[in-house]
Amino acid sequence: MSQELQPISPERAKEMYLNARKREVSQSTLDGYHYRLKHFIRWCNEVADIDNMNDLTGRKLQEFRTWRRDDGDLKPVTLEGNLDALRVFIRWCESIDAVLQGLHEKIIMPTLSKEDEQAESILPAEQAEAVLEYLRQYEYATRGHVILEILWHTGIRLGAFHSLDLGDYDSERETLEIRHRPETGTALKNGKEGERIVALSGTVCSAIDGYIEHNRPDTRDDYGREPLVTSRYGRLSRGNVRETVYKVTRPCYYGADCPRNRDPESCEGTHYNGYSKCPVNVSPHDIRRGSITEHLSKDVPEKVVSDRMNVGPDVLDKHYDKRSEEQKVEQRRGYLEGV
């Protein structure tokens, strides 16, 4: 008996899928699904001219795979993440008779080497210091400055930063309290287990104090809460924070030479709404990787880093510790001298 498919547009299928997963996963995970699947929707609309999911075939999925790899100039590990999200989505589409049964199995995943699995971008300490030096001198206590200070010093996730309220900051104790508040729009990736108090440095606190006193718009979010870092309209969205990070980590922004020798006048990454197209800036998660690596490089014990950044030891070692083997050897040598 042949399967009878029910017509549905790619946009509607994606909307239904995200709505179905809303109570199963955290908001940050849901945002990740949205980000990865939006490229598939764009391909359907702009390249493949597909307005009905029923028309998808294994050959068309292979065409998308090639297009996505080339369009985004993606590394194998990033392509794998995109295709894995698509496979889960297509398998769900099979359950509502939007595509043929078993179609998700026809998505060919890239074969990753051990190097590919760990080839993730990172904000190196020297670049972080260059960005912060510029912001401390020319944009002290601005929103962008405070965002970079907090993200680099604490290594917290974007979702944790997004959750911070004015009352979570204690200037006298020099701490930030990270809390899971899903009922008012700010869930943490690891739920209640992600709650903790994070110590700050005097440098970071001075920047936050200056921001609160001179530059913070006194606004509330849709739930009546007072966010720590705000816009004129309330709590900054994750997208706003990400865009700010893209903006200030462009080498041309903080006075460094462009590694790609691009002309700032013509580079698409220098224009508003185009900052993410800069080939050498970083995302908030790249800052997290860099911060964790820098903590480990300064001999902060792994258990302390694990607790501070809310990441398990195995994940810490595989995905966040970007020290070279030579660096690890020399650090171990320092502990063993005289033994």
TrEMBL record:
Residue span of region Disordered: 312-339
UniProt keyword ATP-binding present: no
Record's keyword annotation contains DNA-binding: yes
Coiled-coil residue windows: none
Domain of life: Archaea
InterPro entries linked to this entry: CB (IPR044068), DNA_brk_join_enz (IPR011010), Integrase-like_cat_sf (IPR013762), Integrase_catalytic (IPR002104), Integrase_recombinase_N (IPR010998), Integrase_SAM-like_N (IPR004107), Tyrosine_recombinase_XerCD (IPR050090)
Residue ranges constituting the Core-binding (CB) domain according to the UniProt record: 8-94
Basic and acidic residues: bias regions: 315-339
GO biological process annotation, one example: DNA recombination
Record keywords, A-Z: DNA integration, DNA recombination, DNA-binding
Domain Tyr recombinase per the UniProt entry, residue ranges: 118-333
GO molecular function: DNA binding
Database matches in PANTHER family: INTEGRASE_RECOMBINASE PROTEIN MJ0367-RELATED (PTHR30349:SF41), PHAGE INTEGRASE-RELATED (PTHR30349)
Protein known as: Integrase family protein
Origin species: Natrinema gari JCM 14663
